[in-house]
Amino acid sequence: MKPLILPTTMIPLSQLMQQSERQSPVSVDPSGHQSWQQFHNDVALLCEKLNSYEQQQWAICCEDSYFFAVAFMALAHSKQHMVLPGNHQPAALAELSHHFDGLLHDNNIQCPESCISLKLNTINWQSSLDIPIVFEPLTLADIQLTLFTSGSSGKPKAIIKNLALLNNEIAQLEMLWGQQLAQTTIVSTVSHQHIYGLLFRILWPLCCDRSFSRFDLIYPEQVMAQASDGCVLISSPALLKRLDNEDKTQDYRAIFSSGGPLPLAAAQQCQTLFSKLPFEVFGSTETGGIAYRQQHDNSTPWQRFPVIDIALNAEQCLKILSPFIDQDLWYQTSDHCEQIDNDHFILKGRTDRIIKIEEKRISLTDVEQRLCSLPWIEEAAVLPLEQNNRLILGAVITLSNEGKKDVQQRGKGKFWLLLRQQLRQWIEPVGIPRSYRLVDSIPLNTQGKRLVSDLESLFTDDAST
Length: 465
Prior knowledge:
Elements: E1 27-28, H1 36-50, E2 57-61, H2 65-77, E3 81-83, H3 90-96, E4 102-105, E5 116-119, E6 144-149, E7 157-162, H4 163-177, E8 185-188, H5 195-207, E9 211-213, H6 220-226, E10 231-235, H7 237-240, E11 254-257, H8 264-274, E12 279-284, E13 288-293, E14 302-304, E15 309-312, E16 317-322, E17 326-339, E18 344-350, E19 354-357, E20 360-363, H9 364-372, E21 377-387, E22 390-399, H10 401-410, H11 412-423, E23 435-438, H12 452-457
Parallel strand pairs: 1-9, 2-3, 2-4, 3-6, 4-5, 8-9, 8-10, 10-11, 11-12, 22-23
Antiparallel strand pairs: 6-7, 12-13, 13-14, 14-18, 15-16, 16-17, 17-18, 19-20, 21-22
Helix pairs in contact: 1-2, 4-5, 10-11
Domain AMP-dependent synthetase/ligase: 134-304
Protein name: AMP-fatty acid ligase
Keywords: Ligase
């Protein structure tokens, strides 16, 4: 593992608010840009307000990335424990409310009864402080942040990190791509409420004198309209897959994708539209970033981040030694891999997606890949189902244009029989899906991940199998 070096183009989080000026606005928006001086004053003002509260654990729920950044840095300098719920829905916040006693937000969300609420867009940010705050350096290891994994079952799992770990990851990102991203503005389709958006959309730009856009790009046409050499796109497979019907406008300086596997067709469409392949980043909330690649074909391996060491355990599962977790302890993942050399590996799927049906070990990932290798299938999600007191597999699929024509000609019943017949080339009979659902798109949550509960709900009525 190479030693972590702080790039000269980066100001560490510990010293960020001690900077008196910077070249670029902090955030950009058609209604106006926010300068560094305004940001400095706003963080100071919010620090003063927070000092009047007894609460020690504050959740941040913001749609506006500028307000989010102000809240984040104010809580850090107030030495508060920060909590980032991934979902702002009332029931979801209520479920997580035991993690926090205060809520900073900028929209009309329903605050849990157990905590106090402070709405950021009602504050008079133009008001001046009687005594300007002088920001002291932060001890990053002492400031904690709770994030939440999406959880494949849909139940969020709390992950606690400290800001020193996030600072290490920002330094690695800047070492890899800082020169390429010089003097750009960051636009994003992903939420800053999760670790990918938090790092790539907010903290990395803040520490490296780059502006970020205040609001999400939601629609493909917005993504195309923002394209320029002065912009970097932070996105996910969920959005990049929706660019298939768009026409070329201009090129982004760089495109990043994370949160799930990016189909090769979506990567190739980015190459067509923007003259470059996305940088795909592999990792998780628990691990931070692990590796990256630009997908030239289905066999393109992943390249580890330079500061991370990789190895495989006896079950051929990836383990890492990473300064984004603990630089002295190996972390074991459930990712089944083929290691090519000390720097590269190929993902084979997760071992927690291997199940037993009639004493046969079946890889759900393998069944999905076999389905997607057929010319009629665009995407597939395979899951175990209980049917008549026995375990079977169900498959949720989207069709290619060829598949849509074939279904119209054959009818669904004969089409399902065709799929099963084709799968017998590779898969034992017990591992072939018996129940199918045809959808326009695979349902995803706000992080662009599939939830088992959402997929299971498609099979509650078996009439359309």
